[in-house]
Amino acid sequence: MCSLRSVVRPRARTHGRRAPDHEARRGGRADLREVLFGFFVVLAATLNFGYFVGDISDPTVHNSYGLIAAVVVNLLTTLLKWGDRTQLGAVHLATSLVADLQLIVALAVLGYAVLLSTAHMTAATTAVVVSLSGGALLANLVSVTILVVDGLLVPALVPGQATFARLMVSARRMTLRSVGSVACRFRQAM
């Protein structure tokens, strides 16, 4: 007599243990590289925001050391994003390169105004530097948004390795059930 047990092996018992993909989302250890990456992305955005806030034409409100710190942290963030070869990693790197470009140009304009220009920091020069910093801030906010979406939604949408393995086992079982059912009908017909 044909039975399903002869075709499909019984399911392995986990004895109350969770699959590895659930452990990372629910109380498992965080990866140090991911923590540092998130830290530098948020720090770059907050430093840039700290320089950007204030009257756009008042040079006394915008501290040049804040801009220098924003440039340095943005460059470090770009180095951290360099090794990621995923689609989200490419977008992260693009936003970081945009922020770096705008902040470096803002720092060059600031350096020219302070070191080489006889007029020093005028309202127009401050407006240019702050506007470039605002563009970099927008790129940093896009990067923070991608970081949050990647952290919250992607693990729920993309199956982990253990989930993928379970899907493959389920597909194999369904195939074996189909083949077993056909084999049983064929045997009974003979």
Note the overall shape: elongated
Going by helix content, strand content and strand pairing, the class is mainly alpha
Strand segment tally: 0
Number of helices: 8
Mean pLDDT: 78
Strand/helix succession: HHHHHHHH
Outline the low-pLDDT stretches: 4-26
What is the terminal separation in angstroms?
A: 13 Å
Compute the CA-based radius of gyration: 28 Å
Helical content class: over 70%
**Largest sheet descriptor:** none
Q: How much of the residues is beta strand, in percent?
A: under 5%
Overall tally of domains: 2
Please, could you describe this protein's structure?
The chain is mainly alpha-helical and 190 residues long. The chain has two domains: 30-158; 159-190. It has eight helices and no strands. It has helices at 4-7, 20-25, 32-52, 64-81, 87-116, 123-152, 154-157, 161-189. Helix 3 runs antiparallel to helix 4. It starts with a helix and ends with a helix. Mean pLDDT is 78; it is low at 4-26.
List descriptors.
190 residues, mainly alpha, 2 domains, 8 helices, 0% strand
